[in-house]
Amino acid sequence: MRKKIVAGNWKMNKNAEQTEDLLNELIEKMPTETDVQVIVAPTFVNLASAVDHLEFINIDVAAQNVHQAESGAYTGEISADMLKSVGVDIVILGHSERRAIFHETDALIASKVNTALEHDMTVIFCFGEELKDRQSKNHFNVVENQLRDGLFQIEAKDWDNIVLAYEPVWAIGTGETASPEQVQEMHEFIRETVRKAFGSDIAEDVSILYGGSVKPDNAKEIFSNPDVDGGLIGGAALKSDDFIAIVNAI
Ligand code: PGA
């Protein structure tokens, strides 16, 4: 069943106290009756406290990354088992900042996806073209390759634990949003690409989120597209009023 999802990627923002404050505000303002799955992704050091804090609330907690190995000499890294042990079973992978700043390749992302799935985690798989790709009209190719090289090694049964997040790099943190037509056109293409590789049932069931400068004033228009099932929110997820307004816009 395709789900409606709004996920907040907090990136490297909010210390322990600020995390608690923002969570308290979200708890207070969250609509009680909603069929939207709401997810927040604080930094690693605040995941355990976020899980505790949200124990009785309908908000799930995600990590922003995971290492592909089980354990070992990987200074500074965090394993899937560690995330699961503090109650986190969702992870964002392939974010454009991980790809660009930390040089994560499709092959590395694919191995992280495999590890996360082996641990029964849900993966929010991010991908999207850069401005130069769109200007050279190569954006469909880029997106298709990212899906094939980073994700399509999985098996049909794994799709229950996959959420797709299309995030055109030129729209992330820039205030520049893809137009609703551009978003729908790409989401339709993504669903078709999944359909060709894995069949109609999986393509119809997978949730495809849009990310890139989603704000309260543009969320409704973006979410009203038939192939858009929610959003991955950066900047606007750091303000409770904005984030809740986006949740309510679905
Ligand atoms: P933004 O970030 O909403 O600030 O553009 C989105 C993201 O990076 O997931």
From TrEMBL:
Gene: tpiA
Pfam families assigned: TIM
GO molecular function, one term: triose-phosphate isomerase activity
Organism: Flavobacterium frigoris (strain PS1)
Record field: catalytic activity: D-glyceraldehyde 3-phosphate = dihydroxyacetone phosphate
Claim: Cytoplasm is one of the keywords in the record: yes
The UniProt record lists the keyword Isomerase: yes
Its biological purpose: Involved in the gluconeogenesis. Catalyzes stereospecifically the conversion of dihydroxyacetone phosphate (DHAP) to D-glyceraldehyde-3-phosphate (G3P).
Oligomeric form and interacting partners: Homodimer.
InterPro entries: Aldolase_TIM, TIM_sf, TrioseP_Isoase_bac/euk, Triosephosphate_isomerase, Triosephosphate_isomerase_AS
Protein name: Triosephosphate isomerase
Top class in the EC scheme: isomerase
NCBIfam families with a match to the protein in the record: tim (TIGR00419)
